[in-house]
Amino acid sequence: MVKNYMEDVVEDLVDKLWNENTDKDFCKCEKCKNDVIALSLNKLPPKYFSSDKGNIWTKLIFADNQKMTDVMTAVAEAMKIVKSSQRH
Amino acid sequence: MVKNYMEDVVEDLVDKLWNENTDKDFCKCEKCKNDVIALSLNKLPPKYFSSDKGNIWTKLIFADNQKMTDVMTAVAEAMKIVKSSQRH
């Protein structure tokens, strides 16, 4: 079984942003959330592992400010795109 | 639910290559196969969709010679790497 561990990083961040987001105009439905996750992942380099070593990589990423900044930038851009063109 | 539809394209191609491969020195165990798939996907642009529109994209890719050449190149490189450094 192979998995892109970047998914865990993006989903964790989007969950946090979803809960903290106070923008009344931002739709929080599941469809918009999945669109943000998909768009973000298409902007970020995939990180597939064929073993659960990916869990170690995930922990390292959360501690890497530059990489987390890249992830946050991708998610912020995706949120802007989804907000301006909601498809639900 | 979001999914990287590039996974279907790579897995389909690796399955074909696994069956047709006559290289006695090439290990065909599941671990080596997953390593080839993971390595290939890390070399290719992700194509996440948050809907099953991804299935339409997959059909388009199989008909796109340039894109399939890119996928084949990534898989061939991954097979070389795995053959030279088996981890099972």
Describe this structure in words.
2 copies of one chain form a homodimer. A two-stranded antiparallel sheet of chain A has the order 1-2. The first copy, chain A, has helices spanning about 5-20, 30-45, 55-60, 65-85, and strands spanning about 5, 50. The first copy, chain A, has one domain (about 5-85). Chain A has about 90 residues and is mainly alpha-helical. In chain A, helix 1 crosses helix 2 and helix 2 (about 30-45) crosses helix 4. The N and C termini of chain A lie far apart (about 30 Å). Chains A, B: Pfam families: ComFB. Chains A, B: This is Late competence development protein ComFB.
How would you summarize this macromolecular structure in one to three sentences?
Chains A, B: It holds the Pfam family ComFB. The first copy, chain A, is mainly alpha-helical and 88 residues long.
According to DSSP, the number of beta strands of chain A is 2
Work out the helicity level of chain A. 55-70%
The SSE order of chain A reads EHHEHH
Largest interface: A-B, 19 and 19 residues
Strand arrangement within the widest β-sheet of chain A reads 1-2
Tally of distinct domains of chain A: 1
> What distance lies between the first and last C-alpha atoms of chain A, to the nearest angstrom?
32 Å
Query: Which oligomeric form is depicted?
Result: homodimer
Are there runs of chain A of 5+ residues with pLDDT below 50, and where? none
What integer value in Å does the Rg of chain A equal? 13 Å
Summed over residues and divided by their number, the pLDDT of chain A gives a mean of: 92
What summary fits the major beta sheet of chain A? 2 strands, antiparallel
Indicate the structural class of chain A: mainly alpha
